[in-house]
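Re: [ENG-882] Designed sequences occasionally contain unexpected residues at chain ends

Forwarding the minimal case from QA. Structure tokens:
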């Protein structure tokens, strides 16, 4: 990593809804945090925020010490920000304009992120305003694309990929989620098909970072707001995310980023 103190900002996108962006973003943040990094997670899904629920902090509301910026909500050492934390009394501040991109800008730039090494951004589905705003404003290190094995998901993720490339955003790699199911005897079943992702990654010249299994327990942990606990109980997940963050760290190290790059303002204590 560069000597310069710089926040690596990574957006998680998919194109298609429901493929696991929020789960992957959250697990990425958890894995990075468990590896000793200082991590923030921005929920850029303004109409369907899920980060508060996943971290079991729904109903909490952000505070502002200076009347201008928000203090992130902390959960297990991870700094979280979501429209879900901005309740009625803060509405005037966050919704100065009707634009979704303005709301995202405010969540990104008016949060007192504290000395982050990584900021993970959970994007909503689609290639619309949210993806555009984040691409143009967030000074991204790069993006990770999440897909399920089906062609229908790959068609949408391709649109997302094309949009990012048009904007000159580095695509760090692909994660195939819900790739296979391992039965009690240890046999893997590729329920949604096998091989599409290899053709896709070859065609577009993107690395397949990982393929994650279907883990019925994972949805339960997520619904109960206990995603943070799952790594101890689901060793396969823990192993997969160790591999993912080790890939990411070396991929980021190899990127040619300008030294003078200004990232989000870093607040130090
Ligand atoms: N590997 C997995 N195994 C089992 N369930 C999973 C897996 N990944 C995600 N899920 C579950 O699938 C559902 C959708 O996941 P998630 O909310 O992360 O998707 P999303 O892409 O963020 O959706 P949206 O497009 O609505 O934002 C959740 O209930 C989640 O717990
Ligand atoms: Mg989501």
């Amino acid at each position: 990593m560069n000597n310069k103190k710089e926040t690596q900002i990574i957006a998680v996108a998919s194109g298609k809804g429901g493929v696991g962006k929020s789960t992957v973003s959250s697990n990425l943040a958890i894995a990075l945090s468990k590896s000793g990094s200082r991590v923030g997670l921005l929920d850029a899904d303004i109409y369907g925020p899920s980060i508060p629920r996943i971290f079991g902090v729904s109903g909490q509301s952000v505070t502002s010490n200076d009347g201008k910026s928000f203090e992130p909500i902390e959960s297990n050492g991870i700094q979280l920000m979501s429209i879900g934390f901005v309740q009625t009394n803060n509405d005037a501040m966050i919704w100065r304009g009707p634009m979704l991109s303005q709301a995202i800008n405010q969540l990104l730039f008016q949060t007192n992120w504290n000395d982050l090494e990584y900021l993970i951004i959970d994007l909503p589905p689609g290639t619309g305003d949210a993806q555009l705003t984040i691409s143009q404003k967030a000074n991204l290190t790069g993006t990770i694309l999440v897909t399920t094995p089906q062609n229908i998901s790959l068609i949408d993720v391709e649109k997302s990929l094309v949009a990012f490339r048009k904007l000159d955003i580095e695509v760090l790699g692909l994660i195939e989620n819900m790739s296979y199911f391992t039965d009690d005897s240890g046999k893997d079943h590729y329920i949604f098909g096998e091989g599409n992702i290899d053709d896709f990654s070859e065609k577009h010249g993107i690395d397949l970072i990982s393929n994650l299994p279907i883990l019925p327990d994972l949805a339960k942990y997520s619904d109960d707001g206990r995603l943070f606990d799952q790594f101890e109980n689901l060793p396969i997940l823990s192993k997969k995310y160790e591999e993912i963050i080790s890939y990411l760290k070396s991929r980021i190290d190899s990127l040619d980023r300008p030294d003078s790059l200004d990232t989000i303002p870093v607040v130090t204590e």
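QA comment: On inspection the terminal residues look reasonable. The CA atoms of residues 11 and 79 lie 16 Å apart. Proposing we downgrade this to a documentation issue.
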